[in-house]
């Protein structure tokens, strides 16, 4: 009989990991303090856009994101089949816009190294071509990178489908447990819920997102994971058409098949508050019309916020503890949790099955790297 794996945290990373482990025949239990997918996961815009998100250099994090994008088409089919639930997966492509000719050189530098990793991106400076891609694009845009490989999902439905897929496969899911504590872990994990219920297993996967720092004293390591509030708004489109993910240095716009346009994200540090503020939404409203002028006459119909788990160096914590390989971290994905859900789940499953991370990733994502 295969091992029993406890997954601490029921966000998109925890659900995806449980789904992957369950498909490999492991007994899996998810322990969630609130509701599954209730924080960063369900609040996300659902972008699968590593070329757009990471423009600096091909570091291990970019490669992890790119690997996840490449496997996402098959992954989302598997989730749909296992859950019996459909959700939006749109291979829309993306455009990243700039407003000054002086910025074009930076675009050329970006696509030069990204092409080495399979990107089919091109820089478009012709206004007619830009208008063909996005008829409502502002004439202030002087150039854009068009990346045809990038895509997006409707995050709330994707998370729901993952949960259903887990349930259909026999994963035990416990929600609203409150502040669960790791009572012991040196030989095997023992988790105590707020009401005193005890959960035991053979291995523990920590997917607790912005709350992971609470485990510093438990494992006697530094865990610099902090909650970053991301505020988002959405518009109802009528006659207007938006075809692609559109990004700029200020944020993003993502059209959804339900006729809405998601605009994000205004980020700030507010502890664990998910309150939406006028100042935060105004930051979005003040720049979005520079991309799509028709937004000048529209007001958002919906606003919300989620907590994004950011690490000190921007890389997730992904891998086992040195002296306790039965404790595996999979947390701190910041604003790329949806994108990285597929590859993270695969990595954790491989580790538990006896296949370690490659050396470069092992060093970059080691959960104890801030302690040594």
TrEMBL record:
<feature type="domain" description="FAD dependent oxidoreductase">
    <location>
        <begin position="5"/>
        <end position="350"/>
    </location>
</feature>
<dbReference type="InterPro" id="IPR006076">
    <property type="entry name" value="FAD-dep_OxRdtase"/>
</dbReference>
<dbReference type="Pfam" id="PF01266">
    <property type="entry name" value="DAO"/>
</dbReference>
<protein>
    <recommendedName>
        <fullName>glycine oxidase</fullName>
        <ecNumber>1.4.3.19</ecNumber>
    </recommendedName>
</protein>
<dbReference type="InterPro" id="IPR012727">
    <property type="entry name" value="Gly_oxidase_ThiO"/>
</dbReference>
<dbReference type="GO" id="GO:0043799">
    <property type="term" value="F:glycine oxidase activity"/>
</dbReference>
<dbReference type="InterPro" id="IPR036188">
    <property type="entry name" value="FAD/NAD-bd_sf"/>
</dbReference>
<comment type="pathway">
    <text>Cofactor biosynthesis; thiamine diphosphate biosynthesis.</text>
</comment>
<keyword id="KW-0560">Oxidoreductase</keyword>
<keyword id="KW-0784">Thiamine biosynthesis</keyword>
């Amino acid at each position: 009989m295969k091992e029993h794996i406890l997954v601490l945290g029921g966000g998109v990373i925890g659900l995806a990991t449980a789904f992957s482990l369950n498909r490999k025949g492991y007994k899996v239990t998810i322990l969630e303090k609130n509701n599954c997918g209730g924080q960063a996961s369900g609040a996300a815009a659902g972008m699968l856009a590593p070329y757009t998100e990471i423009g600096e250099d091909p570091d291990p994090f970019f490669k992890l994101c790119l690997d996840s994008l490449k496997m996402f088409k098959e992954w989302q089919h598997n989730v749909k089949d296992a859950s019996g639930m459909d959700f939006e997966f749109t291979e829309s492509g993306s455009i990243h816009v700039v407003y000054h000719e002086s910025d074009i050189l930076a675009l050329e530098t970006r696509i030069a190294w990204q092409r080495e990793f399979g990107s089919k991106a091109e820089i478009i400076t012709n206004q007619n071509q830009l208008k063909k891609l996005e008829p409502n694009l502002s004439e202030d845009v002087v150039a854009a990178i068009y990346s045809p490989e990038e895509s997006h999902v409707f995050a709330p439905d994707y998370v729901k489908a993952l949960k259903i897929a887990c349930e259909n496969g026999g994963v035990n899911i416990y929600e609203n447990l409150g502040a669960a504590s790791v009572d012991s872990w040196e030989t095997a994990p023992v988790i105590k819920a707020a009401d005193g219920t005890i959960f035991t297993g053979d291995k523990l996967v920590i997917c607790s997102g912005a709350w992971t720092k609470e485990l510093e004293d438990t494992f006697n390591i530094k865990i610099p994971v902090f909650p970053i509030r991301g505020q988002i708004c959405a518009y109802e489109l009528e006659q207007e058409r938006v075809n692609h993910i559109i990004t700029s240095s200020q944020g993003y716009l993502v059209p959804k098949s339900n006729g809405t346009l998601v605009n994000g994200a205004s980020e700030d540090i507010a502890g664990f508050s998910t309150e939406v503020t006028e100042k935060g939404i105004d930051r979005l409203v003040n720049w979005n019309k520079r991309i799509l002028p028709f937004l000048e006459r529209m007001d958002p119909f919906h606003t919300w916020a989620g907590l994004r788990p950011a690490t000190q160096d921007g890389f997730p914590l992904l891998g086992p503890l040195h002296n306790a390989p039965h404790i595996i971290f999979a947390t701190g994905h910041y604003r790329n949790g949806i994108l990285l859900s597929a590859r993270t789940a695969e990595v954790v499953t491989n580790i538990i099955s006896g296949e370690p991370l490659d050396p470069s990733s092992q060093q970059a994502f080691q959960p104890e790297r801030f302690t040594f």
